[in-house]
User: What shape does this take?
Amino acid sequence: MIYYYFGSKEGLFIAVLEGIYHRMDVAEARIAPDVSDPVEALRTVIRFKLDYYHRNPEFVALLNTENLHKGKHVAKSAKAVEYSGHAIALIERILASGMSQGLFRQDLRPRDVLLFILASAYFYVSNRYTLSAFLGEALDRPEAVAHWEAFVLDSVLRVVRA
Assistant: This one.
């Protein structure tokens, strides 16, 4: 049935990747932050990304697998850019609002801000077990997760503020 519906095992894996990105895209569309308050809108996006990765470790596991394959499957997906486009567009609107209000630096690139947020969310979740052993503290504890969220919020806002 795999070959009937997906053409190959690779086709199935591409469909799985598209599915996980689609679910994230749909969830992200629901947050709909008010860009007229760019600081709070950015906080909303950061909290969403951190929470989404934390609550969906299978998303991170599949991304880890795809990265081991150097992105060759997702590169064959016509939908991959579509999903990242929404996130970039949202960050772009938030930054434009913040810049026009004099709250954010004028030299920011939406891609860079998004990558900073994603890196902070992804790395923490993808490496939580080894880092917990290495650091001698359980990074899955609610207190540790809350501390990381506060740190990331502060870090991103320090980077973008004028």
Remarks:
- Residues 118 and 131 are 18 Å apart (CA to CA).
- The helical segments are 2-6, 9-31, 38-55, 57-68, 80-100, 110-126, 128-135, 142-160.
- The chain has a mean pLDDT of 92.
